[in-house]
Amino acid sequence: MNEPFGYDTLVWAKSILVSRLSNNSLSQYDVxxxxxxxxxxxxxxxxxxxxxxxxxxxxxxxxxLCNFEDxxxxxxxxxxxxxxxxxxxxxxxxxxxNVMNNLMINFRDAADVGVGFSEVEVFDFSQKMAxxxxxxxxSSFTFWGKIFGKVSNYFIxxxxxxxxxxxxxxxxxSTTNDAxxxxxxxxxxxxxxxxIPGEGLNSKIYFVCNGIESEWVMxxxxxxxxxxxxxxxxxxxxxxxxxxxxxxxxxxGKEKHLLRAQIARxxxxxxxxxxxFFQPNEDGEEAIANPEYEPxxxxxxxxxxxxNWVHHSMFILPQGRTKSAPALKPESSSHGEDEEExxxxxxxxxxxxxxxxxxxxxxxxxxxxxxxCVKQSPNxxxxxxxxxxxxxxxxxxxERWWNVYIGWGQKQLSGEAYRPINLHPPVADxxxxxxxxxxxxxxxxxxxxxxxxxxxxELNADVADDENGDGSEESEEEDDEDDR
Length: 484
Prior knowledge:
It comes from Mesocestoides corti. Residues 321-370, 460-484 are annotated as: Disordered. The chain has 484 residues and is of the alpha+beta class. It has helices spanning 7-18, 28-40, 47-59, 84-91, 97-112, 119-135, 166-184, 224-231, 255-270, 298-301, 337-347, 446-483, and strands at residues 141-147, 154-160, 204-209, 217-218, 272-274, 278-280, 287-289, 309-311, 372-376, 382-386, 392-396, 401-407. Among the domains are: 10-59, no CATH class; 275-312 and 358-413, no CATH class. 36% of the residues lie in helices and 12% in strands. The strands form 3 sheets. An 8-stranded mixed β-sheet has the order 4-3-2-1-12-11-10-9, sandwiched between helices. The longest helix has 38 residues, at 446-483. It is elongated and about 140 Å long.
């Protein structure tokens, strides 16, 4: 019969169990103690549970702080801490609570239909918007969307044009005009004047950033040349606003100008609202809120006919403006028939569809796909998505609605490969070296050569006589002048 364990044996065994393999690991005694505690709480006793508890105890249950003496002060500075003071200052402003609360509520509705960001990203971005609102306290900001880039992404915020943006906008306009003039000198197409700040495509101001650690940058105003050129190119953004755009036809500006042009195109094509929520103003050129609006039910908003959704943004004309304007005369304009054709084009005024027209009237894609599709979640949230611009959504409930874009900033190609425009001037054809094209001409005979020389000799003599006659007349005039 074995001798029972004594007190010394128990102390020796416990000392072994208490010992740790390293400074940051748990002892075997602590692991067994945690397992017994969980068993006493009523958990079943099996091998799988013991293994799971021992694994969790060794990895997740306990965390040891590192030695603060090992941390160097110069290595402890993080970029995110630079935004901390701005965020704390922004949270003290009561005017920002509604903006951040609305953003959280909107993304909660978006998550109900499978669109949006994570809660952590939404919270971080709401704090980032708060820092922007502190800088411009007299403006209200709305989250426009997120455009993906090859290196970094763009988070975009929209606000109405105000006087506090005039000075910043003037600097942006001068830079844009310089870039446009350089491209315009290389382009023979007629150019159109840009819309003034506060009207048309420039009625909104947009700020972008690459993340919570980056600064807000105000985008410049857009020009018709940039709109028209962006329609003819297909470029993925990189995430660097100062990146050069190498395309044909040459784009008049940098990536920030291309980003602004894509934002204008997406907004004009995909910003929609429930019917009767807006009404046109006296001029019929701007949508204003309708005070007598009665909210539509989710079933009405989810109707497949799409008659209860309308466009509340102005249509962009082919010339790159929302209002037709006469073309500017190019510096190197040709004469004759070309000038007459330009005058005829100037006389024809471009007209787009009326404001607040139903989205059901939009044309289908080339492959027959409808321009819009609608679905409804079990909770009643309605999602209307654009097939022309993948990533453009309108999300609505019975109490609220909003527009958001999350995508690559590219228009749908209808399943076909991108086809660039024809190069100008056209490429020369290859030389035809067939026998018919390269047939050698027979040499002229002696009689033909003599006749040719005689004919040209008479012509040369007539030309010489004319020159001598002119010279004699000039000399006579000079003599008369000398006599005077």
